[in-house]
Amino acid sequence: xxxxxxxxxxxxxxxxxxxxxxxxxxxxxxxxxxxxxxxxxxxxxxxxxxxxxxxxxxxxxxxxxxxxxxxxxxxxxxxxxxxxxxxxxxxxxxxxxxxxxxxxxxxxxxxxxxxxxxxxxxxxxxxxxxxxxxxxxxxxxxxxxxxxxxxxxxxxxxxxxxxxxxxxxxxxxxxxxxxxxxxxxxxxxxxxxxxxxxxxxxxxxxxxxxxxxxxxxxxxxxxxxxxxxxxxxxxxxxxxxxxxxxxxxxxxxxxxxxxxxxxxxxxxxxxxxxxxxxxxxxxxxxxxxxxxxxxxxxxxxxxxxxxxxxx
Length: 311
Known about the structure:
- It is built from eleven helices and 13 strands.
- It is an alpha/beta fold.
- A six-stranded mixed beta sheet has the order 5-6-7-3-8-9, sandwiched between helices.
- A hairpin with a 4-residue loop joins strand 11 and strand 12.
- Helix 2 (89-100) packs across helix 3 (105-113) and helix 5 (159-174) packs parallel to helix 6 (186-192).
- The longest helix is centred in the middle third of the chain and has 16 residues, at 159-174.
């Protein structure tokens, strides 16, 4: 696995990253989330040794610099257009392959994987942002690395491209690899990530599984219905569960279905319905990062009030 320990980076008096530690497991996709300016890109650069700072990151218990062929250990995408604009896509990857000791036959393979085989001999300077992202991903997987670090890889992709990227990332991790990916597309992250690392204002907010993050969110609830509502309500009160009465059922907040099921079984209460309703990843993210937003825009309502105050 990847183990990041106590990563820290300061720009004079400004804290970019402060004492961040987390793990990225193989066989899983780990999403990296945070508001704009949270320090995600800086964290990735610190992990790779591209920025000076404190702390360390190991890849299978060794720093990346200890490997003689690092491109076969870690594939990276930090900038969409990290290529010479007039050099063909094929030649760009060919140079990277030669530098990394990778067979040249691999170049056409990865271009085909990312859907750029038809433009292999064209200069990427005129590529759209989405095509440039695909070329960046091709460069990242060139050495068939065990680990992928991708910074906002979905930027510029159309809906078909985003669906392809989601499938590609999940499949890559399923082969026993690990993918560490940042994104602002929370709906996509909820569909492909197994674990989540969340930072805000340069500090770690959460490092957990997506399932636990959603289940532990204050907006998660469970709907439960019984043929003996009075007895069920008595159990809910006995367990000090927070609940509200619905039409013929109860909505219980901040618990899991297992908690209610076990309590009802112990009390001998017949259950007719037991359904969990987890919050969305977007709701959970906004809740835990509410105090870590670097830049906040005023709503139209707030703005109109400000204007009235000035008139």
